[in-house]
Amino acid sequence: MYTRHLTRELAGLGHEVTVFAGQPYPEVADGVELVRVPSLDLYREPEPFRLPRAREIESPTDLLEVATMWTGGFPEPRTFSLRARQMLRSRIGEHDVVHDDQSLGTGLLQMMSDGWAVTSSIHHPVTVDRALDLEHAPSRRRRVQLRRWYGFTAMQAKVARRLPRVLTVSESSRRDIVEQLGVDPRRVAVVPIGVDPHLHRPHPGVARVEGRIMTTASADVPMKGLVFLLEALAKVRTDHPSAHLVVVGRLRPDSRVAPVVERLDLGDAVRFVAGESDERIVELYAEASVAVVPSLYEGFSLPAVEAMACGVPVVATTGGALPEVTGRHEESVLAVPPGDAEALASAVRRLLDDRELAGRIARAGRARVLERFTWEQAARGTAALYEELCDERSASAGPRSLGTSGTTRC
User: Fold this and answer.
1) Residue 220 has pLDDT above 80, yes or no
2) How high does pLDDT run on average in the chain?
3) I need a labelling partner for 410 at 20 to 30 A (CA). Which of 39, 75, 146, 161 fits?
């Protein structure tokens, strides 16, 4: 999503943009070139962790990808960057800047040695995900597996420290990047991301559904706090029997969420939707009475700004960057502590019971997004950082061509 929207706006500003991406290949806007960087695609659906045929392994990078997976690691940040570097070696001079989208693989250091100006977006350090997953791991064996899976974070920290500039999306993420990855704070620029306000907007002609609560769980991991929202929903339904939850996201087979739904007897009150178009997601927001962001931590939170832009009153935790994004409590959001199901339930009840309060928060939320968080603003801030990189390298004046390199896997 970041790659698609940011590159569209950069192209709209007059830059030439090329996206180098691995599977699953992203959608890009007209006027943006897509260069496919194929891998062995070992995690593809419906056969994740597949065993490739011997004839598929054609290079040392292929062998590294397979070996890392077989030993329980996650190879793609490293192997994507190595493949992208090989492809870019034949295009030196065609672009001014290589912008990585948080692969932070060692191939970026090789690109710098080749002569490229390189920067990277770090939405938040993956060390945060690692810590939360380890905290919620059910067994010692699982903790060992997670430490191996997240082994790539050491590489990412090393690479991030070597880059001349990195981009992030909030002051909260900036602090975490400095503290957890050891990056010089003078090298970290904050450029918030946002929404397309023409797409994400209120639809007064769509009727609100009584008791409809909406949330987005883009990744089925403990960090998203969905279990606490389910516990809150069970509490809300004691005095609001019509309350029900629509979750934009897909459950993993080994998810902790499904047993919680069963334990709380919420089978008829929770619906998961996935693969919907952007337009349909906006319709779902229009139908919702309340949107909830229950995350334990967020580096930014696109779901929060999407809901606010759509004119839906938001309940959000204070985890990570959420207070920066959602604004002041009882002004543009009802804010609650992370991991507190009772506080979530109380806030949701308030918005279901007090439609005047809900309307005021909804209007203030949309105004905040229009002022601060749009993709055009993000593109302008990003292009300004590109200019700094080019100036530092004494790039020649004139039109610039921006090469954007980023893995689309989370």
Assistant:
1) no
2) 93
3) 161
- Percentage above 90 pLDDT, the chain: 88
Q: Taking CA 108 as the corner, what is the angle to CA 107 and CA 113, rounded to the nearest 5 degrees?
A: 95
Strands 188-190 and 97-101: unpaired
Positive or negative CA dihedral for 29, 34, 37, 41? positive
CA gap 3, 13 in Å, rounded: 15
**212-372: which CATH number, 1.10.10.10, 3.40.50.300, 3.40.50.2000, 3.90.1300.10?**
3.40.50.2000
Tokens (6 digits) for 319? 């985890």
Residue 409: band (very low, low, confident or very high) from pLDDT cuts 50, 70, 90: very low
334 and 292 Cβ atoms separated by less than 8 Å:
no
Domain boundaries, the chain: 2-193+374-405, 212-372
pLDDT digits (tens, 9 = 90+) for 362-384: 999 999 999 999 999 999 999 99
**Per-residue confidence at 394, pLDDT binned at 50, 70, 90?**
low
243, amino acid identity: A
Do 2-193+374-405 and 212-372 come out as alike in CATH topology? yes
Q: Which residues of 275-310 are buried (b: 16+ CB within 10 A; e: fewer)?
A: eeeeeebbebbbbbbbbbbbbbbbbbbbbbbbbbbb
Question: Which SS3 state, helix, strand or coil, does residue 253 take?
Answer: coil
Dihedral of CA 10/14/20/26: which sign? positive
Nearest to 273 by CA among 214, 203, 355: 214
pLDDT band at 251 (very low <50, low <70, confident <90, very high): confident
Q: What is the fold, at CATH topology level, of the domain defined by 2-193+374-405?
A: Rossmann fold (3.40.50)
Go through the chain and tell me how many residues it has: 410
Residue pair 22/408 in contact by the 8 Å Cβ criterion: yes
Distance CA 276, CA 179 (A): 37
Specify whether the CB–CB gap between 307 and 314 falls below 8 A.
Answer: yes
Residues 6+ apart with CB under 8 A from 293: 215, 216, 301, 303, 304, 307, 314, 315, 316, 317, 322, 326
pLDDT at 219 over 80: no
